[in-house]
Amino acid sequence: MKGSKASAIAILIILYALIFVLSFSIGRYPVHPVELMKILLSRILPIEQDWTPQAQSVVFCIRLPRIIASSLIGAGLSLSGLIFQMIFRNPMVSPDVLGTSTGAGFGASLALLWALPSFSIPILAFAGGMLAVLLVWRIASKVPSNQVLGLILGGIMISSLFQSGTSFIKLVADPEDELPAITYFLMGSLAGAGMDEVKLIIVPMVISAVPMIILSWRMNILSLPEEEAKSLGVDSKLLRGIAIASSSLMTASTVAVAGVIGWVGLVIPHITRMIVGPDARRTIPSSIILGAAFLTAVDTVSRSVSYSEIPIGILTSFIGAPFFLYLIIREGKKNAA
Amino acid sequence: MLLESRSVSFSYGRRKVLDGVSFAIEGGDMMAILGRNGSGKTTLMRLLLGFLQPDDGDILIDGRDERGMSEREKAKAIAYIPQSTEMVYPYPVIDTVLMGRAPSLSIFERPGKGDEEKAENALSMLGIEHLRNRSVNELSGGERQLVMIARAMAQEARIILLDEPTASLDYSNQLLVMETMERLRTSGYAMLFSTHNPEQALMNATSVLVLSESRIAYSGSPEGLMDGSVLESLYSRRLCIKSIDTGENERIICIPR
After folding, report:
1. What is the pLDDT of residues B18-60, one digit of tens each?
2. Distances in Å between the alpha carbon of B89 and those of A278, B93, B248?
3. Is the ipTM of this complex over 0.85?
4. Pick the CATH number of B3-256 from 3.40.50.300, 3.10.180.10, 3.90.640.10, 3.40.640.10
5. Which residues of A touch B (CB under 8 A)?
6. What is the CATH number of domain A2-336?
């Protein structure tokens, strides 16, 4: 059993590697896998250049940063969704539950409304996302008897507040210039993802993912009822605090560079559990790999199916919403059985 | 004494739930807590586990004041089996039992070979190793309680608290769980369980604590309840309590008159 789950993780890695290579080969300037390997390896091995400078430029300046960005964002959204589902003991929650995405979206919209320099968009997105989490945290602390409920209800409230804030920004935004920029940003897209964006998010992603990987076994215990976890000597307040801070930082980072990409954080953790079971020692690495593979694949589709790029958030919704329906029906059948 | 409650009182706001509750248990004891709904049984459990702090009085674990103990230290001393464990995610039995090793591991540690062995041993001691890879959510109520008992054993705490361990179990599983608890008691654990079934208290416990209107109505051996007066006033019913010889052993029945 253990072996089959370990080999499932190996298959996921191979799947990701395939998508990684394919993603270079698909698009307006396709790069053949063999050529791609040569170009990539030429950085470390003395390989004679038999490819065009354009191909090299496509690989290093356009595709690679975008693939790395989509991998990081997919991994981050998926991991934060998995963590939220564990600590809130609810498989139907996603990174948006604490208002992180909407808070970050509000921050970014504000930067676009005020036409601030582009580096301020991620900064305000971070600030908005973290402000939303802090507010929700504050509300939940007023409900000490049932903090999880406090967090979820606080999340709904703060989310709706920031949503209204964003609607107000759209209302007062210049319809010629700012409004389309805000709308497009909120749809979620990786069109602008370059090496600068990768550099911007890689540090917060790693900082927030590493503690989750280290604490993965204990995260299992957090999915037990609060008092049971406590009776096993687990400092659930501290662990939950670390988990919420890490997941929120991950979500805010993704919004900062790619806007609001929904559904990944809900769908991928489910598929991960279906493949490797519920143990967080396996689900955490698997959801990182699967999230990266999924978003890279979807992003490849989003930039290659039509002449003008489709915002990735639209595609993830097309996939996520029916999957959610499937989950509801499956749960309903399970409960009826 | 392994676990001692000294004049413990507790109120939710102005409503006094427990008033001056004292008792002590040692390894090899099995104490039953009887009381009607809302008599403070669950509150007492939560106080003993350190989830609540007493307004007055002290709780001592192995002679140490519980207030000075960390969560981990408490968990090394007391294992808790809740009334029902609903697992949101379908963990296999072995992983669930392995969670009992948490108090023995630091926050950054993961269970190793030794911990896995302890979990496997707990399963085989209860004769449920065949359930090893099944999901806890697929098990019957009785099997699930045995898994929880296995987790408590893997925890290596010497005191086990069980909140209504046989509630919602069928008769055969009720007997199975009580027999398993008896085996743990005779192997040296201090057991404390709450129940709504006076027969379990009379038949399986070595001592009984009866809570009524936030106070102790009775504390002592099960034999002291045989005349029926305490239980009759507790349940406001006339009862017939009899010890009968089944031919193999002595059993106690408690039925309404």
Report:
1. 999 999 999 999 999 999 998 999 999 999 999 999 999 999 9
2. 6, 12, 44
3. yes
4. 3.40.50.300
5. 1, 86, 89-91, 214-218, 220-221, 223-225, 227-228, 230-235, 239, 273, 277-279, 281
6. 1.10.3470.10
